[in-house]
Specification:
- It is a single chain.
- The protein is an alpha/beta fold and 365 residues long.
- The protein is built from six helices and 23 strands.
- It has one domain: Pectate Lyase C-like, CATH 2.160.20.10.
- It is globular and about 60 Å long.
- Bound molecules: 2-acetamido-2-deoxy-beta-D-glucopyranose (NAG) (4 copies).
- One 2-acetamido-2-deoxy-beta-D-glucopyranose binds next to loops.
- The site of one 2-acetamido-2-deoxy-beta-D-glucopyranose has 6 residues, from loops.
- One of its GO terms (molecular function) is pectinesterase activity.
- It comes from Cucumis melo.
Length: 365
């Protein structure tokens, strides 16, 4: 493989055990009426818009920098450490694995791994694997979906640029435990720029936290973007390789939290098979597509309740100004939403993931 003719940057920051504290929000119990999700988002948006006025950033547009960083990130950025990985021995380490092992835990500094061009035999900028949920782990039990990931990120403030994450395990139709995750992101405030994710079933486990995906390529067949993160996907290319019928996303909203949901903007949905844009993993699944080109592989119904009609009242699936043969709203399930301008506002910018306080320009490193 010769995908390595560019400089790769991988930024890692381990801040152990901070995630849960920041993620479990004190949403009042009476907020459990999920039909209020939209108004919750709108209120939140307006509140943030007020804040952002003061910090000079602009909402409703792509991130341009200039926000006020949160305190942990500010500290981490002041104490940056740079590690060069170079196979020819001119850097600090010869493999990515050695470089990551050298980072103490817990760590509160920004660690930048600069992976120099070259072909890495054991440890390439393309990080690949082929585990599935059914493969037996070191403890003698099946790995399960969570542990099938080729790369698992538990750190907060993770950034990857120009990386390729892959799981080569192929999904057989009708098989059980065929899930093979290429990347699992469980830390919050993570960004992926120009990355690609190759897999089949369950490629990208957008597990939990605030995430930003920019100009990424994501390929898979069944539920290939799934989890309960609150994530903004911008200018992403979503490629279905399904052979028959499958759902592209399986978002799982968390009971007791309004936070999670996937928002796709300015993206492309294409590939093979016939797909639902999403199916409801649990009762509170939430996905919005805006300004996205949808090829004719998208089924007219658009969305799937995964066999539970009661979810029609609690899931939230919205579309806004999408285009292409798959974006015709006429055949959509009645419980999907065609968003108004006002309703779409909270979802169509990096403010959706509170990016002002943590999203750095990829060039700042
Ligand atoms: C933000 O500032 C603009 C112009 O300065 C103003 O028109 C708008 O009302 C402000 N928004 C909020 C939410 O304060
Ligand atoms: C996965 O990779 C291992 C090691 O390279 C190999 O032994 C195994 O046969 C592969 N399994 C599949 C399903 O490709
Ligand atoms: C991402 O790729 C685009 C070309 O598609 C390039 O213009 C841009 O500089 C890249 N961004 C980074 C952070 O490398
Ligand atoms: C969807 O909403 C847009 C306004 O955002 C409107 O122009 C369009 O006609 C609506 N489409 C349907 C099928 O209701």
């Amino acid at each position: 493989m010769n995908h390595f003719k560019f400089i790769l940057l991988l930024l890692l920051l381990f801040v152990c055990n901070l995630f849960l504290q920041s993620y479990s929000l004190n949403i009042e119990e009476e907020r459990e009426d999920y039909k209020n999700w939209l108004s919750w988002n709108l209120q939140n948006y307006k509140k943030k818009a007020g804040l952002v006025n003061r910090s000079t950033a602009k909402l409703g547009r792509s991130y341009k920098g200039g926000g006020v960083l949160d305190d942990k990130l500010k500290k981490a950025e002041m104490n940056k450490v740079r590690i060069i990985v170079s196979q020819d021995g001119t850097g600090d380490f010869k493999t990515v694995g050695e470089a990551i092992s050298s980072i103490p835990k817990p760590n509160s500094k920004r660690v930048i791994l600069v992976i120099n061009p070259g072909v890495y035999s054991d440890d390439q900028p393309t990080i690949t694997g082929n585990d599935t949920a059914s493969v037996t782990g070191a403890d003698g039990k099946p790995l399960g979906t969570l542990k099938s990931a080729t790369v698992a990120v538990d750190a907060n403030y993770f950034v990857a640029i120009n990386m390729k994450f892959e799981n080569r395990a192929m999904h057989e139709i009708g098989s059980v435990r065929g899930q093979g995750v290429a990347l699992r992101i469980s830390g919050t405030k993570a960004a992926f720029h120009n990355c690609s994710f190759y897999g089949d079933q369950d490629t990208l486990y957008d597990h939990k936290g605030l995430h930003y995906f920019n100009n990424c390529y994501i390929q898979g067949s069944v539920d290939f973007i799934f989890g309960y993160g609150r994530s903004f996907y911008e200018k992403c290319y979503l490629k279905s390789i399904t052979k028959k019928v499958a759902s592209m996303t399986a978002q799982k909203g968390l009971k007791g939290s309004m936070e999670s949901g996937f928002s796709f903007k300015d993206s492309v949905v294409t590939g093979s098979g016939q797909i639902y844009l999403g199916r409801a993993w649990g009762d509170y699944s939430r996905v919005v597509f805006s300004y996205t080109f949808m090829d004719n592989i998208v089924l007219p119904q658009g969305w799937n309740d995964w066999g539970s009609q009661k979810r029609h009242l609690t899931v939230y699936y919205g579309e806004y100004k999408c285009s292409g043969p798959g974006a015709d709203l006429k055949g959509r399930v009645q419980w999907a939403h065609n968003l108004t301008d006002e309703e779409a506002q909270p979802f169509i910018g990096t403010h959706y993931v509170d990016a002002d306080s943590w999203l750095l320009s990829p060039y700042s490193s």
